[in-house]
Amino acid sequence: xxxxxxxxxxxxxxxxRSHHALETTNWVEDAHTGEPxxxxxxxxxxxxYKGKQVIDAKD
Length: 59
Description:
Blueprint: H1 10-16, E1 27-29, E2 36-38, E3 48-49, E4 52-53
């Protein structure tokens, strides 16, 4: 069974975990409704994507 020879120091442990932080999502204002929406995603309320009707709008 593999067992570490030395205890991992808090500095090395935290350096390894530095890439685990959550990234912020990029929100933009919708040109038609003015509501915030995620970039490169379909607006589920209106069904629009890149100015085109892709899916039926929710009621």
